[in-house]
Structure formats: C-alpha cells, structure tokens
C-alpha cells in the first residue's frame, strides 16, 4: 500500500513538472514576440539575439515536454528498454540548436561591430527589462525539476543564460540611452554568444557520452573487478561492459568464473555480486554469465564503449 501511495506521489510530481513546463513555454513565447518586435523597432542586434536565444528556449522547453511524455512510455517488444533515452536525445537537440544560434550571432555581431548603427535605447531598455523578469519567473518554475533531469536541466540552462544575457541587454540599453555608446550592442551580442557556447560544451559531452554508451565517469572498472573478485567463491570477472541507458540508470554485463564444485552455490554468488554492485557502485541492472574456465584470451578485460556484445565461444557457460 505504501508503494502504491509513492507511485501516485511520483506521478503527481511528474504532472506538476509538466504543468510548470507548459507555463514556461507560454511565458517564453511572449518574451520572444516582444523582443523581436522591440529589436526591429529599436534596431538593436543584442535584443534580436536575446529574442533568438529566447525562441530556442521555447523550442527547448517544447522538446523537453515532448521528451518527458515519450520517456514515460512503457517498454515494447522492439523497444525493450522503453523510451528513457528520449530525454537524452531531447537534451542533445537543444544543445546543438543553441550552439548553431550562438555561432550565427557571433558572425552578426562582428559585422555590426565593423558597421555600427544607431539604436533606440529606450525601446531596447523597456523590452529587455520585461524579458529579464519573465526569464527569472521561468527559472523559478523549472528550478526544482532541473535537479533530477538532464533534459530539464538543459532547458533550465537556456533560461539562466537568457536571464544573464537580459541583464547585459538592460545595462547596454542604459549605456545607449545615457551616453549613445552604440558599440555596446555588438559587444553584448558577442559576450552572450560566447557564454552560451561555454555552457553547452560540458553538457554536450555528458549527453554524447550517454548516447555513445560510455562508461560513466564515476565508475572505475578496475575497482569494479577488484570489488567483485573479493566476493566468496568468485575466481575471476572478465568481459566486463558498463554503460548508461539514461542519465540515472547504469547497466553492467560480465562473465564470472567459479569453480565447478561451487555450481550449487551459483545463485548465492549471483545474489552476492548483484547486491555488492548495487551498494558500492549503484548499478542495479546486471547481466551475469557464469563459466568454469578462467579466461585465457588477452582481450578478456576489454571495455567497448559501444553496445555491450556478449562474446562468442563461451562453451563452458552455465
């Protein structure tokens, strides 16, 4: 009964997260429209760059919402792990889009820097303040969900970078209104774009690592082998593969060598290994193949960063 209550609590929390996402999408669409109109009327590239960034926020939030809903689907006969990777793919699309937008804005800023244009600072300032307030509100809405999801965190990052860039545009608007320093506009655009690229780099690496089924950063394979080989009756662990199929779940596949005389204890050994892997490394999805003959193949302890493929020729497997 307690489990049932917990299930409802998680589901209610997920629905609440989705409602917050929908409100965030509506808010960002409003900012985007306001900044495009304001950017055209004032002639401010920084405001247009902020609008473009905001539009990518809206798209990223939309992708996050879609990915969240797809990710909840149950496993099927041909998608045996379910759709958990949908959120990772959503995050990847978001980040790549952001990188492309940032590169385009750098090109525009350099052109504007070489040919400065006059700007209506008052319009720029008013619209930038509205954008900043809306971004702060959106960030507050998403803060809680961003801690548990790489996908929502990528969308949250969009909002935070946009809030920071909005602060820059507000300050730029003040400088243009007070002192007519128009060169501040392309400089701001350049800074906003570089800031976006800097933040995208780390998250893109994390996302690509999961999609490439790399060994998670916090897991040392030598330590995994050493830990498992201390378990009673385990003679050797080889053909080890460790990978992530989403940002929370880590999977392991390995061959375990035991003595033929210990065959009756195989289930106890298996239980002991799974328990140790769960407690020490937080690996809860394991596939273990038992053998009686130690590995003589020099490629036994070889980690492929691709899909874990069970090696052939395990004639002695149980």
What labels describe this entry?
Alpha-Beta Plaits; single chain; mainly alpha; Alpha-lytic protease prodomain-like
Short description:
The chain is mainly alpha-helical and 318 residues long. The protein has helices at residues 2-42, 45-71, 86-114, 121-146, 150-179, 184-211, 221-228, 266-281, and strands spanning 236-244, 250-257, 285-291.
Q: Could you explain how this protein is built, in words?
A:
The structure is a single chain. Mean pLDDT is 82; it is low at 1-10 and 302-318. The radius of gyration is 26 Å and the shape is elongated. By secondary structure, the chain is mainly alpha-helical. It has two domains: 2-211, Cation efflux protein transmembrane domain (Alpha-lytic protease prodomain-like), CATH 1.20.1510; 213-318, Alpha-Beta Plaits (2-Layer Sandwich). The chain has a three-stranded mixed sheet, covered by helices on one side. The chain has helices spanning 2-42, 45-71, 86-114, 121-146, 150-179, 184-211, 221-228, 266-281; strands at residues 236-244, 250-257, 285-291.
């Amino acid at each position: 009964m307690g489990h049932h209550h917990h299930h409802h609590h998680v589901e209610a929390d997920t629905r609440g997260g989705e409602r917050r996402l929908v409100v965030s999408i509506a808010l960002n669409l409003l900012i985007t429209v306001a900044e495009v109109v304001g950017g055209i009327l004032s002639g401010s590239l920084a405001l247009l760059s902020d609008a473009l960034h905001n539009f990518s926020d809206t798209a990223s939030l939309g992708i996050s919402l879609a990915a969240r809903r797809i990710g909840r689907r149950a496993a099927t006969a041909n998608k045996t792990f379910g759709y958990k990777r949908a959120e990772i793919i959503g995050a990847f699309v978001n980040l790549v889009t952001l990188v492309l937008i940032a590169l385009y804005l750098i090109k525009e800023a350099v052109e504007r820097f070489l040919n400065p244009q006059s700007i209506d600072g008052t319009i720029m300032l008013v619209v930038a303040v509205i954008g900043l307030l809306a971004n702060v509100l959106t960030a507050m809405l998403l803060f809680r969900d961003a801690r548990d999801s790489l996908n929502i965190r990528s969308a949250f990052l969009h909002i935070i970078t946009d809030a920071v860039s909005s602060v820059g545009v507000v300050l730029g608007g003040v400088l243009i209104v007070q002192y007519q320093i128009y060169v501040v506009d392309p400089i701001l655009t350049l800074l906003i774009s570089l800031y976006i690229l800097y933040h995208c780099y780390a998250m893109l690496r994390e996302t690509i690592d999961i999609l490439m089924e790399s060994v998670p950063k916090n897991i040392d394979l030598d330590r995994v082998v050493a830990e498992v080989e201390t378990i009673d009756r385990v003679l050797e662990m080889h053909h080890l593969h460790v990978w992530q199929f989403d940002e929370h779940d880590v999977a392991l596949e390995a061959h375990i060598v035991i003595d033929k005389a210990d065959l009756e204890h195989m289930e106890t050994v298996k239980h002991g290994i799974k328990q140790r892997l769960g407690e020490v490394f937080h690996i809860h999805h394991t596939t273990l193949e038992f053998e009686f003959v130690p590995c003589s193949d020099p490629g036994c302890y070889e980690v492929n960063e691709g899909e874990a493929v069970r090696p052939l020729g395990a004639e002695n497997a149980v």
